[in-house]
């Protein structure tokens, strides 16, 4: 079974030390579920042992997790501007060495955040002012980092390119650069989106080193740049460099042939694809298998089957009696073409395999084997034909081919594609029996399998845990998409501790962008109204614990979501967590306070209101304005603390900014629940008329509702009838419902209903059709919303 963390334990880095996965502006200490770090946890002793203890389930096993060596030190260095003591130069050099030595040893990819930290540390260590003879990075240290950074990450590679540029610059400064360093420099520029820069660098280098290097070395520099230009889509520059490479003596070998042909085939450029494919290859070598497969797909897309048929027939003739007789990749390619181009079935494929065996019996290494079947299964997968793939697997058993690791991975892939999770899980068990180290190229398939298990209508969590355990034992970091699927499946099954384990094991190794993908899924979960409040709160607690960098915008959205659920207490906790955050950018601003007090209008709660109002009083970063006072009035009015709300109306009227239309609507609604509010409302309305202010409809209706709430039905009806003259609009059904709901007695409501049905028959009918009535405090009211807006 899966090795676990103790239920409420996070890694030491998640407890007291710096969270090594955060950018410097977000580094902070966070509270943990336990009051003491994992390392100092006292082991619980068994006081007595009885017979029945033998059958008890063993306690959850604590798995000690170690961070990637040196990474936390590099992060501390980047956090030095946040009142954190920076590491010493000795610590920084050691951290650099440890991190990249670990990456080389474990074969792990450097993520974009690690590349950013390494670049900043390198800039500091190599600065002329801070340079020290006693402790500095050696050329070998720089080259170790270079080799690691040349492996592309899954996310943004900008930081990789910048760090590599700094490494090559430092090697040149020390006069330590050798031809291999320059070759690596060209490769890094070419594969990280800077092929044009690599081209210019090559021409400059060739001019400076004329006759100082062997011709083969100089010519080897062209191909990575040509590949980079093709990848970036610089067509004219690609053609120009290809011509210059040919002029310089670069042979048109299968690799060069593949780059040029594949580029135009991907663009469906028929003329150029045929031109570059038909160009003679150096030493009359055959095209690479990947080139032939790419050309076949191109021909099928562009209705060039006749041209492809000529290529196929020429290939077959050379295989059966020509120079390609012992070329196994070409035999495998001919089988792929037979399936895709000719649509041949299993019987014909079996016959072709036997023909190949007959022609290559003198050279066993050239005979068809399980690799041949693997290439055909890949074709079936590309065709999205799992039935063909299954028949090919049956053929492999019939021919006596022994499946290998790749065979099982392909089988797993097409069964997942077919939605056959039971079959896929059976293949996974066969895969487990192989004593083979998990290959990076297989990881996407296993990640897809886990996601498919999680996406099932009723996920089998035991299977999910079994597969994840297999990968965890091999120290594999799951893809962010897979971690999202796992966490969502566990949350839906109330397996909170499995979520803790998953996040603890994997998110530490992610870059900022990868972490953003996972935390967005948690934010979306918290905002989904289909989940229970308890589950959403658990998700929020995990989000806050593992992702302290969650943006203020998302935290405020979660706060709003709790108000929608009528849980002002939870919304207050979310606000408090923002208020207490170490990062000033995440703390509440004026807009956040406004949103909170508006939320109290949806879910009145006096204790929550006073708690946040007290926070506001001591928040020196907030300069109150009319909008904030409006929001506070909303909160106190919703909690029926009307006189306290009116204190802020006084603040508004005496402020330089003065009231807004929203202020007028809010104060009328406050007067609605105030004992002498009718008189105050009349006085305010008279003042508005004297000042000849254009009043919007929502303010006018608020005044009418106040009049109705104090039992002045006749006046309310007259005001409604005069609406067209005052605001230029007749009352709509929402206005009628608002006034109806404000009336204080059933007798008045019945009288109003009779009157409205006669005076506003269409609007009243629409109100009755769209909104049902309910009983509130013994009185009938329509279920219409009356939003608060500051």
Description of the structure:
It is a single chain. The chain is mostly helical and 790 residues long. It has a two-stranded antiparallel ribbon with strand order 1-2. α35 packs antiparallel against α36 (697-709) and α36 (697-709) packs antiparallel against α37 (713-721). It starts with 11 loop residues before the first helix and ends in an 8-residue tail after the last strand.
Q: What's this, in brief?
A:
The chain has 41 helices and two strands.
Percent range for β-strand residues: under 5%
SS field, number of helical segments: 41
Distance between the termini: 55 Å
Total strands: 2
Helical fraction: 55-70%
Indicate the low-confidence ranges by residue numbers.
1-55
Summarize model confidence as the mean pLDDT: 87
Task: Please describe the biggest sheet, giving its number of strands, its sense, and whether it closes into a barrel.
Answer: 2 strands, antiparallel
Shape: elongated
Radius of gyration: 36 Å
Secondary-structure-based class equals: mainly alpha
Order of strands, widest sheet: 1-2
